[in-house]
Write a sequence for this structure.
Protein backbone atom coordinates (compact mmCIF):
# COMPACT_ATOMS: atom_id res chain seq x y z
CA UNK A 1 0.00 0.00 0.00
CA UNK A 2 1.29 3.43 -0.87
CA UNK A 3 2.01 5.55 2.13
CA UNK A 4 -0.33 8.39 2.90
CA UNK A 5 0.92 11.95 2.86
CA UNK A 6 -1.88 13.55 4.83
CA UNK A 7 -1.16 17.17 5.56
CA UNK A 8 -4.24 18.21 7.44
CA UNK A 9 -5.79 21.64 7.55
CA UNK A 10 -5.74 23.40 10.89
CA UNK A 11 -9.18 22.02 11.75
CA UNK A 12 -8.48 18.40 10.83
CA UNK A 13 -7.05 15.91 13.32
CA UNK A 14 -4.02 13.92 12.19
CA UNK A 15 -3.19 11.78 15.18
CA UNK A 16 -4.75 8.67 13.64
CA UNK A 17 -2.49 8.62 10.59
CA UNK A 18 0.37 6.15 11.07
CA UNK A 19 2.61 7.85 8.51
CA UNK A 20 2.77 11.00 10.59
CA UNK A 21 4.70 11.53 13.77
CA UNK A 22 3.46 13.78 16.50
CA UNK A 23 5.52 16.84 17.15
CA UNK A 24 8.21 16.12 19.71
CA UNK A 25 8.09 18.28 22.84
CA UNK A 26 10.92 20.83 22.99
CA UNK A 27 13.95 19.81 24.99
CA UNK A 28 14.78 21.82 28.09
CA UNK A 29 17.82 24.03 28.16
CA UNK A 30 19.30 26.85 26.18
CA UNK A 31 19.12 26.84 22.40
CA UNK A 32 22.56 26.62 20.79
CA UNK A 33 23.10 27.66 17.19
CA UNK A 34 25.46 25.45 15.22
CA UNK A 35 26.32 28.44 12.98
CA UNK A 36 26.75 30.87 15.87
CA UNK A 37 24.19 33.42 14.78
CA UNK A 38 23.64 36.21 17.23
CA UNK A 39 19.89 36.19 17.73
CA UNK A 40 16.65 34.39 17.11
CA UNK A 41 13.58 36.17 15.81
CA UNK A 42 10.76 37.15 18.16
CA UNK A 43 7.20 38.06 17.27
CA UNK A 44 6.18 41.72 17.51
CA UNK A 45 3.88 42.04 20.51
CA UNK A 46 1.59 44.55 18.78
CA UNK A 47 0.67 42.13 15.98
CA UNK A 48 1.32 38.71 17.54
CA UNK A 49 -2.39 38.03 18.07
CA UNK A 50 -3.59 39.52 14.79
CA UNK A 51 -5.75 37.23 12.66
CA UNK A 52 -4.00 36.23 9.44
CA UNK A 53 -6.22 36.23 6.36
CA UNK A 54 -4.74 34.63 3.25
CA UNK A 55 -5.97 34.77 -0.34
CA UNK A 56 -7.85 31.65 -1.40
CA UNK A 57 -5.78 28.83 -2.91
CA UNK A 58 -5.70 28.89 -6.71
CA UNK A 59 -4.72 26.09 -9.10
CA UNK A 60 -1.50 26.36 -11.10
CA UNK A 61 -1.11 24.11 -14.11
CA UNK A 62 2.65 24.52 -14.42
CA UNK A 63 5.83 25.24 -12.47
CA UNK A 64 8.00 26.12 -15.47
CA UNK A 65 11.11 27.48 -13.77
CA UNK A 66 12.82 27.83 -10.42
CA UNK A 67 10.42 29.56 -8.05
CA UNK A 68 7.42 28.83 -10.27
CA UNK A 69 7.12 31.79 -12.61
CA UNK A 70 9.74 34.34 -13.63
CA UNK A 71 8.75 36.79 -10.86
CA UNK A 72 8.84 33.97 -8.24
CA UNK A 73 5.50 35.10 -6.77
CA UNK A 74 3.24 32.03 -6.54
CA UNK A 75 1.08 33.23 -3.62
CA UNK A 76 -1.26 30.42 -2.47
CA UNK A 77 -1.32 27.34 -4.70
CA UNK A 78 -3.98 24.66 -4.54
CA UNK A 79 -3.60 20.97 -3.68
CA UNK A 80 -5.93 18.37 -2.17
CA UNK A 81 -6.54 18.00 1.55
CA UNK A 82 -5.32 14.39 1.72
CA UNK A 83 -2.29 13.79 -0.48
CA UNK A 84 -1.23 10.23 -1.30
CA UNK A 85 1.93 9.06 -2.98
CA UNK A 86 0.94 8.23 -6.55
CA UNK A 87 4.32 7.45 -8.08
CA UNK A 88 8.07 7.67 -7.55
CA UNK A 89 10.98 7.30 -9.95
CA UNK A 90 14.77 7.24 -9.85
CA UNK A 91 16.03 10.20 -11.90
CA UNK A 92 19.67 9.03 -12.04
CA UNK A 93 22.67 9.89 -9.86
CA UNK A 94 22.01 11.41 -6.46
CA UNK A 95 24.05 13.68 -4.23
CA UNK A 96 27.44 12.65 -2.82
CA UNK A 97 30.51 14.28 -1.30
CA UNK A 98 31.65 15.39 -4.76
CA UNK A 99 28.31 15.99 -6.46
CA UNK A 100 25.08 17.78 -5.63
CA UNK A 101 21.66 17.88 -7.15
CA UNK A 102 20.97 21.21 -8.80
CA UNK A 103 17.69 23.07 -8.85
CA UNK A 104 14.25 21.74 -8.10
CA UNK A 105 12.19 19.86 -10.70
CA UNK A 106 9.97 21.89 -13.02
CA UNK A 107 6.63 21.09 -14.66
CA UNK A 108 5.33 22.23 -18.05
CA UNK A 109 3.23 20.74 -20.82
CA UNK A 110 2.29 17.66 -18.81
CA UNK A 111 5.92 16.69 -18.15
CA UNK A 112 8.11 16.86 -15.05
CA UNK A 113 11.72 17.73 -15.86
CA UNK A 114 14.71 16.88 -13.66
CA UNK A 115 18.49 17.10 -13.74
CA UNK A 116 20.60 14.67 -11.73
CA UNK A 117 24.07 15.12 -10.22
CA UNK A 118 25.74 13.91 -13.45
CA UNK A 119 23.93 16.31 -15.81
CA UNK A 120 21.41 13.77 -17.06
CA UNK A 121 18.17 15.57 -17.88
CA UNK A 122 14.96 13.54 -17.88
CA UNK A 123 11.28 14.14 -18.60
CA UNK A 124 8.47 12.19 -16.94
CA UNK A 125 4.74 12.03 -17.49
CA UNK A 126 3.24 14.24 -14.81
CA UNK A 127 0.34 11.89 -14.06
CA UNK A 128 2.04 8.47 -14.24
CA UNK A 129 5.77 9.04 -13.74
CA UNK A 130 6.58 7.20 -16.97
CA UNK A 131 9.80 8.49 -18.48
CA UNK A 132 9.38 10.26 -21.81
CA UNK A 133 13.08 10.81 -22.58
CA UNK A 134 16.53 11.24 -21.05
CA UNK A 135 19.67 12.96 -22.37
CA UNK A 136 23.20 13.12 -20.96
CA UNK A 137 24.57 16.66 -21.23
CA UNK A 138 28.02 15.90 -19.82
CA UNK A 139 30.73 17.16 -22.19
CA UNK A 140 33.07 14.50 -23.53
CA UNK A 141 36.08 16.20 -21.98
CA UNK A 142 34.75 16.31 -18.40
CA UNK A 143 32.88 13.84 -16.22
CA UNK A 144 34.16 14.83 -12.78
CA UNK A 145 31.86 15.72 -9.92
CA UNK A 146 30.29 19.16 -9.95
CA UNK A 147 27.19 21.11 -8.96
CA UNK A 148 24.59 21.82 -11.62
CA UNK A 149 22.50 24.93 -12.06
CA UNK A 150 18.98 23.96 -13.02
CA UNK A 151 16.15 24.08 -15.53
CA UNK A 152 13.55 26.39 -17.07
CA UNK A 153 10.91 25.92 -19.77
CA UNK A 154 9.51 28.57 -22.10
CA UNK A 155 7.78 28.38 -25.49
CA UNK A 156 8.49 24.69 -25.97
CA UNK A 157 12.18 24.95 -25.11
CA UNK A 158 13.95 23.53 -22.07
CA UNK A 159 16.94 25.58 -20.92
CA UNK A 160 19.64 23.97 -18.77
CA UNK A 161 22.53 25.54 -16.85
CA UNK A 162 25.37 23.25 -15.79
CA UNK A 163 28.45 23.15 -13.62
CA UNK A 164 30.42 22.69 -16.85
CA UNK A 165 29.89 26.41 -17.60
CA UNK A 166 27.36 25.64 -20.31
CA UNK A 167 23.85 26.81 -21.15
CA UNK A 168 21.94 24.35 -23.33
CA UNK A 169 18.57 24.57 -25.07
CA UNK A 170 16.56 21.42 -25.77
CA UNK A 171 13.23 20.72 -27.40
CA UNK A 172 11.03 20.29 -24.34
CA UNK A 173 8.82 17.48 -25.74
CA UNK A 174 11.70 15.38 -27.13
CA UNK A 175 15.01 16.39 -25.52
CA UNK A 176 16.58 17.16 -28.91
CA UNK A 177 19.47 19.61 -28.52
CA UNK A 178 18.91 22.99 -30.20
CA UNK A 179 21.97 24.96 -29.14
CA UNK A 180 24.77 24.94 -26.58
CA UNK A 181 27.11 27.73 -25.50
CA UNK A 182 30.05 27.77 -23.09
CA UNK A 183 30.46 30.70 -20.69
CA UNK A 184 33.48 31.78 -18.66
CA UNK A 185 32.55 30.11 -15.34
CA UNK A 186 30.34 27.31 -13.97
CA UNK A 187 26.65 27.95 -13.31
CA UNK A 188 25.04 26.93 -10.03
CA UNK A 189 21.71 28.72 -10.35
CA UNK A 190 18.80 27.74 -12.57
CA UNK A 191 18.16 30.02 -15.54
CA UNK A 192 15.32 32.52 -15.60
CA UNK A 193 13.39 33.03 -18.83
CA UNK A 194 10.97 35.67 -20.03
CA UNK A 195 10.18 37.54 -23.23
CA UNK A 196 12.54 35.54 -25.43
CA UNK A 197 15.53 36.08 -23.15
CA UNK A 198 17.41 33.59 -20.98
CA UNK A 199 19.23 34.94 -17.93
CA UNK A 200 22.10 32.83 -16.62
CA UNK A 201 24.19 33.69 -13.55
CA UNK A 202 27.70 32.28 -13.27
CA UNK A 203 29.76 31.38 -10.23
CA UNK A 204 31.96 34.46 -10.70
CA UNK A 205 28.96 36.80 -10.34
CA UNK A 206 28.42 37.52 -14.02
CA UNK A 207 24.93 37.69 -15.49
CA UNK A 208 24.46 36.73 -19.14
CA UNK A 209 21.38 37.75 -21.11
CA UNK A 210 20.97 35.34 -24.03
CA UNK A 211 18.62 35.11 -26.99
CA UNK A 212 16.32 32.16 -26.33
CA UNK A 213 16.13 31.23 -30.02
CA UNK A 214 19.85 31.11 -30.76
CA UNK A 215 21.82 31.41 -27.52
CA UNK A 216 23.43 34.61 -28.80
CA UNK A 217 24.83 36.84 -26.06
CA UNK A 218 22.80 40.06 -25.83
CA UNK A 219 24.51 41.74 -22.88
CA UNK A 220 26.28 40.99 -19.60
CA UNK A 221 26.55 42.50 -16.14
CA UNK A 222 29.36 41.83 -13.67
CA UNK A 223 28.71 41.96 -9.95
CA UNK A 224 31.32 42.41 -7.24
CA UNK A 225 33.72 39.46 -6.88
CA UNK A 226 33.34 37.20 -3.86
CA UNK A 227 36.03 34.72 -2.85
CA UNK A 228 33.96 32.88 -0.22
CA UNK A 229 30.36 31.88 -0.76
CA UNK A 230 27.87 29.17 0.07
CA UNK A 231 27.24 26.27 -2.31
CA UNK A 232 24.37 26.80 -4.70
CA UNK A 233 22.92 29.87 -6.30
CA UNK A 234 19.74 31.88 -6.81
CA UNK A 235 17.88 32.62 -10.02
CA UNK A 236 17.13 36.22 -10.99
CA UNK A 237 13.54 37.49 -10.81
CA UNK A 238 11.94 39.15 -13.85
CA UNK A 239 8.88 41.39 -14.14
CA UNK A 240 7.79 44.68 -15.72
CA UNK A 241 10.86 44.91 -17.92
CA UNK A 242 13.27 44.60 -14.99
CA UNK A 243 15.51 41.70 -13.96
CA UNK A 244 16.58 41.62 -10.29
CA UNK A 245 19.87 39.79 -9.81
CA UNK A 246 21.05 38.24 -6.49
CA UNK A 247 24.84 38.10 -6.27
CA UNK A 248 26.90 36.12 -3.76
CA UNK A 249 28.50 39.39 -2.64
CA UNK A 250 25.18 40.42 -1.10
CA UNK A 251 24.48 42.82 -3.97
CA UNK A 252 20.91 43.00 -5.21
CA UNK A 253 20.93 44.67 -8.63
CA UNK A 254 18.00 45.72 -10.84
CA UNK A 255 18.70 45.96 -14.58
CA UNK A 256 16.65 46.74 -17.67
CA UNK A 257 15.78 43.49 -19.41
CA UNK A 258 16.31 44.86 -22.91
CA UNK A 259 19.64 46.66 -22.45
CA UNK A 260 21.17 45.65 -19.12
CA UNK A 261 21.16 49.28 -18.00
CA UNK A 262 21.39 49.71 -14.22
CA UNK A 263 18.12 50.73 -12.55
CA UNK A 264 19.32 50.50 -8.93
CA UNK A 265 21.43 48.40 -6.61
CA UNK A 266 21.36 47.56 -2.92
CA UNK A 267 23.55 45.66 -0.48
CA UNK A 268 22.14 42.97 1.81
CA UNK A 269 25.43 42.41 3.60
CA UNK A 270 25.51 41.93 7.36
CA UNK A 271 24.69 44.97 9.47
CA UNK A 272 25.88 45.26 13.09
CA UNK A 273 26.92 41.61 13.13
CA UNK A 274 30.35 40.33 14.02
CA UNK A 275 30.20 36.53 13.86
CA UNK A 276 32.23 34.90 11.10
CA UNK A 277 29.37 33.01 9.49
CA UNK A 278 27.12 36.03 9.01
CA UNK A 279 29.87 37.83 7.09
CA UNK A 280 29.01 35.48 4.20
CA UNK A 281 26.55 37.89 2.61
CA UNK A 282 25.33 35.40 0.00
CA UNK A 283 21.85 35.87 -1.42
CA UNK A 284 21.13 32.22 -2.12
CA UNK A 285 17.36 32.51 -1.95
CA UNK A 286 15.55 33.77 -5.03
CA UNK A 287 14.31 37.37 -4.85
CA UNK A 288 10.60 37.91 -5.48
CA UNK A 289 8.92 40.65 -7.51
CA UNK A 290 5.38 41.12 -6.25
CA UNK A 291 3.11 44.08 -6.99
CA UNK A 292 5.93 46.57 -7.61
CA UNK A 293 7.97 45.39 -4.65
CA UNK A 294 11.11 43.29 -4.45
CA UNK A 295 11.38 40.96 -1.46
CA UNK A 296 14.81 39.45 -0.82
CA UNK A 297 16.75 37.86 2.04
CA UNK A 298 20.48 37.31 2.47
CA UNK A 299 22.41 34.84 4.57
CA UNK A 300 24.28 37.81 6.01
CA UNK A 301 21.25 38.85 8.02
CA UNK A 302 18.83 41.09 6.11
CA UNK A 303 15.35 40.72 4.66
CA UNK A 304 14.16 43.75 2.72
CA UNK A 305 11.24 45.17 0.79
CA UNK A 306 12.31 47.48 -2.03
CA UNK A 307 10.36 49.59 -4.53
CA UNK A 308 10.93 47.94 -7.91
CA UNK A 309 11.07 51.18 -9.88
CA UNK A 310 13.09 53.45 -7.61
CA UNK A 311 15.15 51.10 -5.43
CA UNK A 312 13.86 52.82 -2.28
CA UNK A 313 13.88 50.60 0.79
CA UNK A 314 10.36 50.37 2.15
CA UNK A 315 11.46 48.36 5.19
CA UNK A 316 14.19 46.00 6.34
CA UNK A 317 14.71 43.60 9.22
CA UNK A 318 17.86 42.03 10.64
CA UNK A 319 16.80 38.50 9.72
CA UNK A 320 18.92 36.19 7.59
CA UNK A 321 18.34 32.95 5.74
CA UNK A 322 19.47 30.81 2.83
CA UNK A 323 16.08 29.93 1.37
CA UNK A 324 13.70 31.96 -0.76
CA UNK A 325 10.93 33.81 1.07
CA UNK A 326 7.35 33.11 0.02
CA UNK A 327 4.84 35.93 -0.52
CA UNK A 328 1.07 35.40 -0.25
CA UNK A 329 -1.32 38.33 -0.01
CA UNK A 330 -0.17 40.68 2.75
CA UNK A 331 2.25 38.15 4.28
CA UNK A 332 5.76 36.84 3.82
CA UNK A 333 6.85 33.41 5.05
CA UNK A 334 10.53 32.55 5.40
CA UNK A 335 13.05 30.11 6.88
CA UNK A 336 15.74 31.78 8.99
CA UNK A 337 19.36 30.87 9.63
CA UNK A 338 18.26 29.62 13.04
CA UNK A 339 15.86 26.96 11.70
CA UNK A 340 12.75 29.02 12.33
CA UNK A 341 9.72 29.46 10.11
CA UNK A 342 8.45 33.02 10.43
CA UNK A 343 5.50 35.05 9.19
CA UNK A 344 6.04 38.76 8.49
CA UNK A 345 3.86 41.60 7.29
CA UNK A 346 4.47 42.41 3.64
CA UNK A 347 3.53 46.00 4.42
CA UNK A 348 5.98 46.84 7.20
CA UNK A 349 8.05 43.73 8.03
CA UNK A 350 6.63 43.18 11.50
CA UNK A 351 6.71 39.55 12.69
CA UNK A 352 3.38 37.83 13.39
CA UNK A 353 4.68 34.49 14.60
CA UNK A 354 7.85 32.39 14.88
CA UNK A 355 8.01 28.59 14.89
CA UNK A 356 11.26 26.80 15.70
CA UNK A 357 11.98 23.60 13.79
CA UNK A 358 14.14 20.68 14.94
CA UNK A 359 17.78 21.78 14.87
CA UNK A 360 19.64 18.50 15.27
CA UNK A 361 19.04 14.88 14.41
CA UNK A 362 20.73 14.10 17.73
CA UNK A 363 19.38 16.88 19.98
CA UNK A 364 20.82 15.47 23.21
CA UNK A 365 24.38 15.83 21.91
CA UNK A 366 23.63 18.83 19.66
CA UNK A 367 24.96 16.71 16.79
CA UNK A 368 24.03 16.27 13.13
CA UNK A 369 22.53 19.69 12.37
CA UNK A 370 19.42 19.73 10.17
CA UNK A 371 19.09 22.07 7.21
CA UNK A 372 15.60 22.94 5.97
CA UNK A 373 14.36 23.98 2.53
CA UNK A 374 11.18 25.81 1.53
CA UNK A 375 8.64 26.97 2.42
CA UNK A 376 5.89 26.70 -0.16
CA UNK A 377 2.27 27.59 0.65
CA UNK A 378 -0.25 25.03 -0.60
CA UNK A 379 -3.90 24.94 0.48
CA UNK A 380 -3.51 26.40 3.96
CA UNK A 381 -0.25 24.72 4.92
CA UNK A 382 3.37 25.66 4.60
CA UNK A 383 5.52 22.75 3.46
CA UNK A 384 9.21 22.49 4.33
CA UNK A 385 11.61 19.57 3.92
CA UNK A 386 14.82 18.74 5.72
CA UNK A 387 18.18 17.03 5.62
CA UNK A 388 16.80 14.63 8.23
CA UNK A 389 14.61 13.07 5.52
CA UNK A 390 11.35 14.56 6.77
CA UNK A 391 8.78 16.93 5.31
CA UNK A 392 6.73 19.06 7.69
CA UNK A 393 3.39 20.82 7.32
CA UNK A 394 3.14 24.09 9.26
CA UNK A 395 0.05 26.22 9.76
CA UNK A 396 0.46 29.60 8.01
CA UNK A 397 -1.96 31.08 10.54
CA UNK A 398 -0.19 30.14 13.76
CA UNK A 399 3.08 28.37 12.97
CA UNK A 400 1.82 25.17 14.58
CA UNK A 401 3.39 22.01 13.15
CA UNK A 402 0.51 20.00 11.68
CA UNK A 403 2.26 16.83 10.58
CA UNK A 404 5.39 15.11 9.32
CA UNK A 405 6.12 12.41 6.75
CA UNK A 406 9.29 10.51 5.92
CA UNK A 407 11.00 11.15 2.60
CA UNK A 408 13.14 8.54 0.78
CA UNK A 409 16.29 10.41 1.83
CA UNK A 410 17.44 13.86 2.93
CA UNK A 411 15.94 16.70 0.88
CA UNK A 412 18.02 19.69 -0.23
CA UNK A 413 15.79 21.34 -2.84
CA UNK A 414 12.33 22.77 -2.14
CA UNK A 415 9.20 20.90 -3.20
CA UNK A 416 7.09 22.19 -6.10
CA UNK A 417 3.36 22.13 -6.93
CA UNK A 418 1.53 21.75 -10.25
CA UNK A 419 -1.99 20.60 -11.11
CA UNK A 420 -2.74 19.77 -7.49
CA UNK A 421 0.32 17.52 -7.09
CA UNK A 422 3.32 18.07 -4.82
CA UNK A 423 6.71 16.84 -6.06
CA UNK A 424 9.72 16.15 -3.82
CA UNK A 425 13.23 15.37 -5.05
CA UNK A 426 15.33 13.58 -2.44
CA UNK A 427 19.12 13.53 -2.39
CA UNK A 428 19.16 9.86 -3.42
CA UNK A 429 17.68 11.03 -6.76
CA UNK A 430 14.20 9.76 -5.96
CA UNK A 431 11.40 11.94 -7.36
CA UNK A 432 8.14 11.40 -5.48
CA UNK A 433 4.71 12.69 -6.54
CA UNK A 434 1.81 13.17 -4.11
CA UNK A 435 -1.72 13.89 -5.24
Amino acid sequence: MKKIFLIALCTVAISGCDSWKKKEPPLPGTRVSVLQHERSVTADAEVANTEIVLPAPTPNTEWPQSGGYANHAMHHVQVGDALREVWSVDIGTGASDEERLGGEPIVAGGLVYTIDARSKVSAYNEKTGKRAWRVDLTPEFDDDGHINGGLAVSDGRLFVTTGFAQVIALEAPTGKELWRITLDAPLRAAPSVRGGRVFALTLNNKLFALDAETGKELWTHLGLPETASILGGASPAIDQGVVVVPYTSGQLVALRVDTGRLVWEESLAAVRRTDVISTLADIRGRPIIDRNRVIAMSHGGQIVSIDLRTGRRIWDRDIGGLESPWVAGDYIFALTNDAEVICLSRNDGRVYWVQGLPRFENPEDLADPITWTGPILASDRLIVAGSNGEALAVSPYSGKVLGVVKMPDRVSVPPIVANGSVFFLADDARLVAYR
User: Anything to note?
Assistant: The first strand starts at residue 4 and ends at 5. The chain has a mean pLDDT of 88. The chain has one domain: 4-433. Residues 340 and 356 are 4 Å apart (CA to CA).
